[in-house]
From TrEMBL:
It holds the Pfam family Copper-bind. It comes from the Bacteria. The gene is petE. Residues 1-27 form the signal peptide. The keyword Transport applies. InterPro entries: BlueCu_1, BlueCu_1_BS, Lipoprotein_repeat. Residues 456-539 form the Blue (type 1) copper domain. This is Plastocyanin. Keywords: Copper, Electron transport, Metal-binding, Signal, Transport. It comes from Paenibacillus allorhizosphaerae.
Length: 539
């Protein structure tokens, strides 16, 4: 694989050089952006996925999916959500007290309607807050489409049967996060109802469950990622047909015409839907010399191969040493002058490691995981600075999967808003960007001054020591003793942003801040700013 990549790079360079030697090419207009939406965006715009208080955010998509969430989505897709919310039945599952009032009504409705398939987990319980697996959610989606367990499929056969109905994108995910739910739900919206000619999206639009004016979102052409033991991960269309690139093409320009174009039909879609692993900005549209439009990926025009007859065929791979599948990797390498090289995902979002983790084991749970969402992908390829064998997968305590680099679990930082942000670098002296080096360690950091560890309780709506003097390089661990949530936020600086801000801490939760630079730092609790303030003097 490594040799082939090097060979492709040489041929791409050779193709570019031939252009200056009189090779005829198609003159392309300036490439135009393509209307690309991720599964999460489609699900959110249709109102199928509604998120938490802040909507369908990256943080929400990273959260574990619970049984009650899956049940609500099932009812929403069946057009029964409002009926369930308004249900006044008194009988309920034994563990209904673990959820809020609206979810209690939903659980009571499901108990009163066992024909819907949500009969609980035994001993009169529903287990609303436990996680959901791919097998369980595909069962939900199959029944949403009108198929019945023990009539159309058995529970043990769910994954295989779902694939036969076009549902397979999250089949290997194990326990699910909300991002998986977005992908699988959008898959189902494209599928046809049992025995009918209409898709689930069209049916829901007729039932006014989703906005009919937006239903077309579910009909966008889709580009998926396939995986092969020899070829690695590569791009395919929504039917599984392989997409190729031509090494004689140049950036944003096609050289394939006449008989070439007959053997290698162009790929074009004006609206494209992708999973969250792909970067929509990588897709654009060019206008060919013949006036036809063609989709490009990272500047390279996309094609089919006429001899590929079915999904999974890759007969065009290596033809004449100029045609190749479009390989894909969710991890690449970026660099910044002060940090050097570090790992990012396919959208350029920074990946981090946590020094409190141990090899192949995460120590980041609860509030930590909220602030440092986990990263997982099954599509990682070797590159100039990367070896696919350096990446692995662990299964976390909740059953979800997480990708590792040389044994260290990988994370995002919730405050990184865009590609290139590295706001998580050095946080609390335990979070770092990852240098793609032989050591697999975090990038070299300047050594902080030696300091001490201090503790600060938050109790009775007050900081235990409203004013504290510490040495540079020291840390303060804040512990919330109150039943309500508190946090610690510095007063704004000249640019209007705080120097530090902890997450909201529940009772018994802690957060550690380290102060390397001398100075005076005033701070407050955001929810109770009028009564909770303090000062830290660093010498």
């Amino acid at each position: 694989m490594k040799k082939r990549n090097k060979k492709l790079a040489v041929m791409l360079l050779a193709g570019a050089m031939m252009l200056s030697s009189g090779v005829q090419v198609f003159a392309a207009d300036t490439p135009a952006p393509v209307n690309v939406k991720t599964d999460a965006q489609v699900a959110a715009e249709l109102g199928v996925l509604q998120g938490d208080g802040s909507g369908v955010t990256p943080g929400y998509l990273a959260k574990t999916t619970t049984r009650i969430q899956a049940a609500i989505l099932f009812l929403r897709l069946k057009g029964l959500e409002q009926t369930a919310l308004a249900f006044k039945g008194m009988d309920n599952f034994a563990d209904a007290g673990t959820v809020g009032d609206s979810n209690k009504a939903t659980m009571s409705y499901l108990k009163a309607n066992p024909n819907l398939g949500w009969t609980g987990t035994g001993e009169g319980k529903f287990d609303p807050l436990s996680g959901v697996t791919a097998q369980q959610y595909y069962k939900v989606l199959l029944e949403t489409l009108g198929y019945k367990q023990d009539t159309d499929f058995t529970y043990n056969d769910v994954i295989t049967y779902a694939k036969s109905r076009g549902l397979y994108q999250i089949s290997t995910a194990g326990a699910l996060r909300n991002g998986h739910i977005a992908t699988a739900t959008v898959e189902a919206l494209k599928a046809k109802i049992k025995g009918g000619s209409k898709t689930l999206a069209e049916t829901l639009a007729e039932q006014k469950v989703i906005d009919a004016g937006k239903a077309a979102l579910a009909a966008y052409a889709r580009i998926n990622i396939a995986k092969d033991a020899t070829l690695g991960s590569y791009l395919v269309d929504e039917t599984g047909k392989t997409l190729y690139f031509f090494t004689k093409d140049r950036m944003d320009t096609s050289t394939c015409k006449d008989q070439c174009a007959a053997n290698w039909p162009i790929y074009y879609a004006d609206n494209i839907q992708v999973s969250g692993e792909l970067n929509g900005a990588d897709f654009k549209t060019i206008v060919r010399e013949d006036g036809k439009k063609q989709t490009t990926y990272k500047g390279m025009p996309l094609y089919y191969y006429v001899k590929d007859e079915k999904a999974g065929d890759v007969k065009g791979q290596g033809v004449n040493n100029v045609w190749y599948v479009v390989n894909f990797s969710t991890v690449s390498v970026s660099s910044q002058e002060d940090l050097g090289k570090f790992l990012v995902d396919s959208s350029g979002r920074t990946l981090y490691l946590y020094t409190k983790d141990s090899k192949d084991k995460s120590a980041c749970y609860g509030m930590c995981e909220t602030n440092w969402p986990i990263f997982y992908s099954d599509h990682i390829a070797s590159g100039a600075d990367l070896k696919s064998e350096d990446f692995g997968t662990i299964v976390r305590e909740d059953g979800t999967k997480q990708t590792t680099y040389k044994g260290m679990p990988l994370y995002y930082f919730v405050k990184d808003e865009k590609a290139g942000d590295v706001k998580g670098q050095g946080v609390n002296n335990v979070w770092y960007v990852i240098e793609p080096s032989s050591s697999g360690k975090q990038a070299e950091q300047p050594k902080a001054a030696a300091g001490k560890a201090y503790a600060m309780d938050i109790a009775g709506f007050a900081f235990a020591q409203p004013e504290m003097t510490i040495e540079a390089g020291s840390s303060i661990t804040f512990t919330n003793k109150d039943a309500v949530k508190h946090n610690v936020v510095s007063d704004a600086t000249a640019d209007g942003k705080p120097l530090f801000e902890t997450p909201l801490l529940g009772k018994g939760e802690t957060f550690t801040l380290t102060f390397d630079k001398p100075g005076e730092y005033t701070y407050f609790c955001a929810p109770h700013k009028s009564m909770m303030k303090g000062k830290i003097i660093v010498k």
